[in-house]
């Protein structure tokens, strides 16, 4: 039976091979379609059918599929030439970053040491497969890019566990991702942006091999797919939009333009025992108020004629941008009809001494200057009495500590009705950013005029340009929300010739402030009326007290 079984097996194998060859011949050779033509090894791109193209290039670059994405071969060439140096620099960062992480595990779980035995990213650099830049009205640069890297890194980590040395090697690393990067805010300090904000626009594709003690763990059935999906999901959970990775480049205080966060209420009450600077009569004092670091003109009280103990009882409101650093500067002068006004004294009050929402009465001893070694400070110059209070805007009030706890203040702010917010006093911030295609008939030296409730504010003129940039901010303190009002902005041109000044209207726009009040802010470009192609770019904000 044993011999017979072996003989039958040999015969069956021979018959099976013969039948397989015959069936294969008829399936793949005899019945092969005759109308199919093989493509030559090199065919013009536009002659390949779409289906065949997808088969040949399963992962087309973005610049092929989306015309608004640009090829960046120059950048890829740059990276290719720089890659040997970038490899060493990046590996140095990886080592310095990993050392404290490795140190946390040494001594635990019988681990004696963890170190890189080999660390290189290989000779193949990553490549950008397309980039797209977005237009933005904000002070930022937004662009999307697709990056792919099928590298040949050699990363070996040596783990010494008791007396056993275990080597783990990362090989054949591949990644494909599409990301959006935002450089913001743009500032006039090199490299001209403060932060890089990066987020993924779709889940990344990650693949790699991991060898431990000479064997590839990723070859274990099911483990490769599980690890690949887990890493992709974890990275997506952390950085897939709207999640972001913020990379600070400059200190937040460098080049940053601080926005108003509240209003300083100052009531100048009176002064006493002031210096007498006049021979035939008494001084004629008045007070100038300003905030340190503020470029706005100083505010003034009325002049009290012939008095060394003047009483004013006058209220002022000043816009605060940094209550921790700014100071209120107070200067008293003796008004003169002719010539310079004599200085009576001065004093400063740091705003950090104030508690939000709390009114504080102060009596200040006047000095000649803030220099402690100034001999003129020994001379008594009188006192100035005033009341002060700092009121943050509603949206900024939770940033400041005060008599209420954070939780209590947050609840009190959220409990305010929309009706109160809409009817309450506030600050309207109007930033005239730029204009485009403003052309004059006789001359083009454009400047902008902002008109609200009879108040006029004017930017500087930009000479001989159709596309002026101003970036100038104007503040309007309003007792009530301007729900039914318009703000009128004109773009004009002026020129002086032979002692005569000529002006020309290049266009204007009327903006409904209702949208600003309800939304808190608008940042838009408006087509100028009475202008062929003129556009005005403005940013308007409403801050409720």
TrEMBL record:
It holds the Pfam family C2. The lineage of its organism: Eukaryota, Viridiplantae, Streptophyta, Embryophyta, Tracheophyta. GO terms for molecular function: lipid binding; metal ion binding. Residues 241-364, 408-526 form the C2 domain. The keyword Transmembrane applies. One of its GO terms (biological process) is lipid transport. It is found in: Membrane. Gene3D superfamilies: C2 domain. This is Synaptotagmin-3-like. Residues 68-250 form the SMP-LTD domain. Keywords: Calcium, Lipid transport, Lipid-binding, Membrane, Metal-binding, Repeat, Transmembrane, Transmembrane helix, Transport. GO terms for cellular component: cytoplasm; endomembrane system; membrane. Its main location: membrane. Belongs to the synaptotagmin family. It comes from the Eukaryota. Coiled coil: none annotated. PROSITE patterns: C2, SMP.
